[in-house]
Structure prediction request, 716 residues.
Amino acid sequence: MSLIELQDESAGYNGKEILRGLNVKIDAGERIALVGESGAGKSTLLRLFYERLGEKAALMPQDSALVQALTVFHNVYMGRLHQRSVWRNLRNLVLPARRDVDEVRKVLVPLRLEEKIFSGVGELSGGQYQRTALARALFHTGDIIVADEPVSSVDEHQAREILATMNAEKETVLLAMHDRALAIEFADRIIGVKDGRIVMDRKSAGMTPGDLDNLYMNPDV
Amino acid sequence: MIDRRDPSPLARAVSGFLFVAIVCLVFADIAISTVDPWREFGLLLKGIVTPDFYSTDSLALALAYTLAFALLGVALGNVFGFGLSLLFHLRLVRVGCAFVRAIHELFWALIFLQLFGLSPLTGVLAIAIPYAGIIAKVYAEILEEADQRPLSAVPVGSGRASVFLFVRLPDAWAHFRNYSMYRLECGLRSSAVLGFIGLPTLGFHLESAFKQGQYSDVSALLILFYLIIATMRVWMKKPLLPAYLVAAIVILPWSIGFSWANISRFLTEDIVPYPLRAGGDGALAAFGDWLAMLLFDQAWPGTVATVQLTMIALVATGFLTLVFFPLISPLLLGRVARTGGHVFLVVVRSTPEYILAFILLNLWGPSMLPAIVALSLHNAGIIGHLIGRYTETVQLRLDAVKGANRYFYEVLPRIYRPMLALLFYRWEVILRETAILGILGIATLGFYIDSAFSDLRFDRALLLILITAMLNICVDAISRSVRSRLRLQTTLEQR
Prediction:
C-alpha cells in the first residue's frame, strides 16, 4: 500500500508556487533521499510529504528546532505530546514522572545522551544537540521519519551514526540531503529536484556521486 | 561654498521638542517661594547624615506593610496580566488594558479608598489593576517574540494547550521572571507612595516625619527603603515566594472591613453626574452647565499645566541623562568613580518621583520647579542607568581620543539614538507621573482630581480621571508613531 501518491501536483509556501508537475509514489518501508541544490525546493517537497502523512510521521526540521529553555528530557518527551493528556503534559513539564523519564531514557541510551537527560539543551555540543532532535523524532510513535538536512552540522562520523540509527529505528525514512555520497549510501531511492521540478527518481543501487552532477550544474554559468 | 543640508527628520523632531519645552518654560511658574530654603535644606542634610533608626516603633511595620502591598499587588497583577496576555489578540482586551494602565496607581487608590476605605484591598487592587494592564501588554510582546521554530517539530495532532506549555511558554518564562522582578521594584515604589493618601506604608510615615521636621526619621526610612530595593535579588528567591505571599496576607490588617452599602452607593449614586442625580426639569441643561464648568474651569487648565510640565520635564530629563550616564560608563570613568556613580543613580532612580517632589516642594514652596527637578532626576536616573550599561558593550578602538573629545566624538553619537528612543518611550510615563504630582498641590490634572475627591464630588473626580486617561492614551499613541517614524528602536528599554 502506498503512503503518498502525488499526481501532477504543485507545492509552495506563502502562496508562492515553488514546485509543479509533481508525480511521486512512496510506499511504506522505502528509504528516500531528496537531493539537489539549495533553493531547488527539497524542503518544500519534504514539507508536502510531511503534511500528507500527518500523525504517522515524526519531523526533524532543518534547524533542529529544540526549545532552548527546556531540558533534553522535555524536548524528547515532546515527540509524544499529541498522545498524552494536557494534565500529564503539564505534570511532566513541572515534575517529570518516573514512568515517562524511563521511556525517554530508553531512546537516549543508544544515542549516548543518557547522562544529559536533565541538562538544558543550551549546554549541549553540536552533535549532542542534533542527536537530541533525532531522539525526539524516535520517541514519536509513528514509524515514518521526515528529516530535513538532519546531519548538516555534524562531522561525517556522527552523520553516519545518526543516519544508521534512523534507518534502524524507523520503517520509512524521507530525507533531504546535500551530501550526495551519504544520500546514496543510506537511501535506497534518490529523488533529484532542480528548478522546481523532479528531474530524477531512481534506485540508488550502483549509483556514484558523479551520477548526480547534472542536478547541480547550472547551465547559465 | 558648502551647501546647507536639509535637517534630518530626527534633528527636526528634536528641535521641535526643544522649542516647545522652551515656550512651556517661559510660561511656567518656577519661583522659589519659601523665605529661607537653604536653612531648611541644611536641616534636611543634617538629618540625612544622622539617620535615626529607633525613633518610631512603627518603622519596621511600615516597611513590612510596604513590602506586603507590593508583593500581593504585583503577584495578583502578574496572574491577571498573564491571563490577559493570552487573550491579547482580542481588541477588547487590548483596549481595556490600555485604559487601566493609563490611570496611575494613586488615582486607582483614590477610587478604591471610596469603595473599600482603608481595607488592605484598596492598596492591593490599586497596584494589581494598572500593573495587570502593563504586564499583559509586555507578556504578549514577549510571547510574540519567542522562538517560533520549535512549533514545526511538534507532532501533528498535539493539543493547543500542550503546545503552548512546551513550546511557547518555556522560552518566555525567563523573560517573565526578569520582568516580574523589575515590576516588583516598581511595585515597592508604588506601595511606598500609597502611604501619602493614607495607607499605612512608608509614605505615610515619611509625610508625618517630614511635616514635623524630623529629618533623621526621614533619612532612616529612605535608607531602609533603598536597602530593600538594592538587595532585592538577594532576598527574592523563587522557593521563598509562597512564604512571602502568605506572610504578606497574614500581616495586612484585613480586620478593617468595608461596607457593601458604601460600595453600592458609590457605584450607583456618587459617580453619577450631580445634575442628573438631582433629576427634575432641566436636568439635562444643568448637566450641560456642569460639564462645561468642569471642562473649561478644571479639565482644560489642568491639561494645559500637565502637558506644559511634562514637556519641560521630558527635555530636562534628556539633558540630565547626558550628565548622568557618564557616571557609570567604563568608557569615561575609572572603577572607583563609577562605584560612586552607581550608588548615586540607584538612589535617584529608587526614590519615587512623588517623594522627591514632596521633599523639594517642602523646601522650595509650591511651583513647577520641584516637580520639574523631581521628574527629571528620577527619570534621568533610570535612562542614565540604562544608557550607562549600554556603553559597557561599546568597544572603542585603542587609539580613541580621551576626555571631553571622547565624550563628544566617540560616545555621544553612539548613545544619541538609543537615548532618544528611551526618552520618547518614557514620555507617557512622565505624563502619568506629572498628573499625580497635582495631588501635592501643583495645578496639574491630579490637583483637580484630588480636590474633587476631598470635596466628596466623586462624579467630578471620575470624569477628570477619564480625561487624564485619554490624555495618556493619546500621548502614548503619538510617542509610538514618533518612534516608528524616526526608526528609534527601543530594544534597550526596561519596558
Summary: Chain A touches chain B through 32 residues (CB under 8 Å). The domain at 2-216 of chain A is CATH 3.40.50.300 (Rossmann fold).
